[in-house]
Amino acid sequence: MRAAELIAAGGVLLRPRCGSFEDAVAGLVDTLVANTRLAADVRDRAVRAVVGREALASTAIVEIGVAVPHARVEGVDGVIAALAASPAGLYYATATVPISVMVIVLSAPELIGEHLNTLAGVSLLLQSANVRRGLENAADQDAALKLLRGGNGRA
């Protein structure tokens, strides 16, 4: 499944009040649970896995204000993803660098190739400054998804 469709299934969270990386991760994991992409009993394990993985090496691309935190987690079915965006920033990667677009990617532990392919697909989606600014200012989830799909449903 393409990255835009994984995000569409997992959900889009616009202008959430996060404050910290952990808050942003928890919000996206809760979005996956709310959209029935992740079982509620896997929620805490998923948050811990992503936060732990981020402690090893940051996924923030500070030059463009994007992060793609990810983890392979027991109890995840396939590969799932969700997106959060805010023009005010979701959290600060450093004291002066806000992260304004974040996509979380979770997958079953055995899906190494699919996990890496999804990360590459998400990275491609977020390369464009116009896409990133559009996501930050999207009116609603439908507008954000249309932007991710390139306006034609094929991205």
Entry keywords:
single chain, 155 residues, alpha/beta, Mannitol-specific EII, Chain A, two-stranded antiparallel ribbon, 6 helices, 8 strands, globular
Folded structure, characterized:
The chain has helices at 3-10, 21-34, 43-56, 112-125, 129-136, 141-148, and strands at 12-14, 60-61, 66-67, 70-72, 79-85, 91-94, 97-99, 101-107. With 155 residues, the chain is α/β, with parallel strands linked by helices. The protein has one domain (3-147): Mannitol-specific EII, Chain A. A hairpin with a 2-residue loop joins β6 and β7 (97-99). The chain is globular, with a radius of gyration of 14 Å. It starts with a helix and ends in a 7-residue tail after the last helix.
Task: Give a topology summary.
Layout (H helix, E strand, L loop, with lengths): L2 H8 L1 E3 L6 H14 L8 H14 L3 E2 L4 E2 L2 E3 L6 E7 L5 E4 L2 E3 L1 E7 L4 H14 L3 H8 L4 H8 L7
Parallel strand pairs: 1-5, 3-8, 4-8
Antiparallel strand pairs: 2-3, 5-8, 6-7
Largest sheet: 6 strands, mixed
| CATH architecture annotation name | 3-Layer(aba) Sandwich
- The shape is globular
> What's the mean pLDDT score?
93
The tally of domains stands at 1
**Strand and helix order:** HEHHEEEEEEEHHH
Q: Nutshell version of this structure?
A:
The protein is α/β, with parallel strands linked by helices and 155 residues long.
